[in-house]
Amino acid sequence: MFFERPQSGELAVLVHLDFSQIDDPDDPREFEELALSAGADPVAFVTGQRAKPDPRYFIGGGKLEEIRDIVSTHNAELVIFNHALSPSQERNVEAALKCRVLDRTGLILDIFAQRARTHEGKLQVELAQLEHMSTRLIRGWTHLERQKGGIGLRGPGETQLETDRRLLRARIKAIQARLDKVRRQRQQGRRSRQRNSIPTVSFVGYTNAGKSTLFNVLTDSDVYAKDQLFATLDPTMRRIELRDVGACILADTVGFISHLPHRLVEAFRATLEEASNSDLLLHVIDCADDERERNIIEVHSVLEEIGAADLPQLRVYNKIDLLSDFQPRIDRNEEGRPVAVWLSARDGVGLEYFHEALSEILGEDVVDGCVTLSPTDAKLRAQLYQQQAVVSEEYAEDGGSELHLRIPKPDLMRILSYIGIDWSDLRWSGDPKALNN
């Protein structure tokens, strides 16, 4: 955008090194899936081991020659590293290989740029790209001479590099202002849902765990879902009706990945706040993935970063169709509370268990019982009917009535507060304490 670089191509050489000093290395298989998801056509996968990265080229001289030969043999136009390179390392390797070099962060940014469909998503991607690019501007102007003194050359002015930095800072500031507006709009929407006592449930999980497929099945939507990393980037929200709960908002969010670049988390904070302000997190897990436990840890790491690690969670083990002779089920803790559901979103198997678990968790404070109202309680009766809380009604000889209610307790308390009636003033048929599920 701001500087001349070799034109990118689809033929790519992938480079992955194992370092003895790193306890949690990136998965090379996941790296290859990332490259394929970005549209690259890998012609070679170069691996190696080092004690620590080389400060100049990240890789050693011998490995650099090996990659140069591969690039020359296959006419590759792109070399992708499964690591974070410093700007100087990226510049030095590009100069040595005479082709474009991309690190892991740049690769993920490219995928995000392809997936963004909404205006907000495009803004967030551009912000992350500009912040990443701001550290790499200097390479673009090495073909220009430095400012120098002399007759007619002295005086005020700025180099092209300084101009680009100034323009880039201005653009970043403008995008941040627009995303702040989006954040305020989301907060307003959340306050509105809270006033109406509508719970929000957010899907979280490792990328390609099947969140969007499950979301589409539950909400009858057509959110883009495909067997590739980061198929979903833009958040989508839909309203559904649950038994014993009523209206509920489901939110589909961007998938997580190991070592998700911090600037991506910052850029997508407006989107991720939707998860951190949810009443319940649905942690969707690919139960057939060999790295299942590692992926769960990575998701928890990102949740901690956005302040959502302590929210209630229901684990949803998806893709049981890939396991042999595995039946859907609900796992419960010692108290009988649902903690996990096993299902297949693709085949629609086990969805009834999912609805059962979700209704149990969100409907824990549902009031189910009979209350006697006098003729003077007409306003309360009208509000209960408006809230669709009345299951049945029987009339008494004195003009009063007995209503069988089923309603979330927060909704009932809100109605009582609006009418100006205390909970203790209600005449229940039975012990009110036994009415809470």
From TrEMBL:
The keyword Transmembrane does not apply. Residues 199-366 form the Hflx-type G domain. One of its GO terms (molecular function) is ribosome binding. It is found in: Cytoplasm. Keywords: Coiled coil, Cytoplasm, GTP-binding, Magnesium, Metal-binding, Nucleotide-binding. GTP binds at residues 205-212, 230-234, 252-255, 318-321, 344-346. GO terms for cellular component: cytoplasm. Its main location: cytoplasm. Its cofactor is Mg(2+). PROSITE patterns: G_HFLX. The keyword Ribonucleoprotein does not apply. Gene3D superfamilies: 6.10.250.2860, GTPase HflX, N-terminal domain (3.40.50.11060), P-loop containing nucleotide triphosphate hydrolases (3.40.50.300). It comes from the Bacteria. Residues 165-192 form a coiled coil. Mg(2+) binds at residues 212, 232. InterPro entries: G_HFLX_dom, GTP-bd, GTP-bd_M, GTPase_HflX, GTPase_HflX_N, GTPase_HflX_N_sf, P-loop_NTPase. Monomer. Associates with the 50S ribosomal subunit. HAMAP family: GTPase_HflX. Belongs to the TRAFAC class OBG-HflX-like GTPase superfamily. HflX GTPase family. GTPase that associates with the 50S ribosomal subunit and may have a role during protein synthesis or ribosome biogenesis. This is GTPase HflX.
